Amino acid sequence: MTDGKPSRRGVKRIALVAALLAAPPAAAQTAPVTPPAAPETIDPGRLALAGRIVRVLVPDGVYLRLMRDRFPAMMDAMMANMDTAIPGGRDRARTADPAFDERMRIMARVMSEEMGPLMSRMEPSLRTGMARALARRFTTQQLTDLAAFYATPSGTAFGEQFLSLFVDPDIMGEMMKMTPTMMQEMPRIMKKVEAATAHLPPPPQPKGETE
Question: In this structure, is residue 143 part of a structural domain?
Fold first, then answer.
């Protein structure tokens, strides 16, 4: 932070958290990435079934509500767990920036207000991608069973909460507890990365300002 303004790194971190809300749950991201199938390779019946499921999992306006109702609380939970992730981290941040807490609250509010409409525009594309992915990964019978479940009151209730589960303070708190272990392991992992890429030329230096 310089001359009373939030650092670019701080802004980018909050923007990253907001952007992660648009991504599939982390567990799903661990699956191997495969090239998207061509439209004609997906059975229309399976795609239709998948579309019914996705309409429950990603209802209209879900991201607007998520950013409005959940993002500020999620940021509060992250700040509350900051000292768990980095012992004394919040105290150091406050020493460097006396307005740290208020600055973070304002940034979270503005990000929630601005990112909600932006993410809402992404919903149709997300539904299309999710429907295609489901249609490729599951059989007709499996999709029929899933569609039947999501048509029930319990299935609908679960679907409405599906995305918000992954920014729930309880889940975020448990994830934050793993941060010290991840930070401890990162130097070892980066040494392996360096060794594995030692035969490559150095990466180009980024142009423009440095952080």
Answer: yes
On whether residue 200 sits in a domain, the answer given is no
What's the CA gap between 120 and 122, in Å, rounded? 5
Residue 75: inside a domain = yes
CA atoms within a 13 Å half-sphere pointing along the CA-CB vector of 96: 12
**Of residues 60, 44, 55, 43, the one with CA closest to residue 130:** 55
For residue 81, give the nearest of 169, 144, 147, 156 by alpha carbon. 169
Look at residues 139, 155, 136 and name the one whose alpha carbon lies nearest to residue 57. 155
Q: Give the number of domains in the chain.
A: 1
Residues paired with residue 2 on neighbouring β-strands, in sequence order:
5
- For 50-77, the pLDDT digits (tens) are 999 999 999 988 888 888 877 777 777 6
Residue 22's closest CA among 71, 85, 56? 71
Domain residues for the domain of 91 are 57-191
For the stretch 187-202, pLDDT in tens is 999 999 999 999 999 8
Residue 51 lies in a domain: no
